[in-house]
Amino acid sequence: xxxxxxxxxxxxxxxxxxxxxxxxxxxxxxxxxxxxxxxxxxxxxxxxxxxxxxxxxxxxxxxxxxxxxxxxxxxxxxxxxxxxxxxxxxxxxxxxxxxxxxxxxxxxxxxxxxxxxxxxxxxxxxxxxxxxxxxxxxxxxxxxxxxxxxxxxxxxxxxxxxxxxxxxxxxxxxxxxxxxxxxxxxxxxxxxxxxxxxxxxxxxxxxxxxxxxxxxxxxxxxxxxxxxxxxxxxxxxxxxxxxxxxxxxxxxxxxxxxxxxxxxxxxxxxxxxxxxxxxxxxxxxxxxxx
Length: 290
What we know:
The chain is an alpha/beta fold. About 50% of the residues lie in helices and about 10% in strands. Strands 2-1-3-4-5-6-7 form a seven-stranded mixed beta sheet, sandwiched between helices.
């Protein structure tokens, strides 16, 4: 099957490699001249046979909107646009309607797999009409891992990105649980080889996971994590998941706590903890550090 792929960075470039290895024809476009197959979006569209399928893997927000708006002027009735970036699910319905007015179909696809997806495959969560999903199934089959897992038609427009949002919220919580366990082990007077303990959990343990494997790899490279700063950014999905938990009155305690922990990582000297120290000093005469 033929596919136009826009955005050939860490994810998109590896996706192009995996698709081509599976025998799919991919025409890639990127603003970096050393990676692109064509010089413009117009040339990309010209190289695709109708009905065209174009997949965007660019940063969420204005860049995605601008790219899809440009495609809308270049594509024809019956063509398909797939957004595989981390767009907010609330953008998908209006986007689908804008494209529908021109006779262009739309799918939103949450993609998980990171830089390892080229080898391991990608978990895909798709939103949109069933017949359009079915038309694009050869692409999804080439990207997903072998076997029965790794793909879901999650529901109508927005469902794919919604599922990926919750996936990333869960990811926040899992990562922070491992991080807290790591810190307790580091602080212990008894445990002398923390990396070895982490490694021992990789098989036979109920906490084994790919994230644990990646923590072990990080410790192999830097046993004390001395070359890193304790700073963690968030890219939006964790916040959106907590927003939805509030809207739906779902007690998402772990995901919310892990999100706020990332905010704490950005403070060298927390104003809130200064206030706590001041209050302890005032009511109990507890010592403070100056």
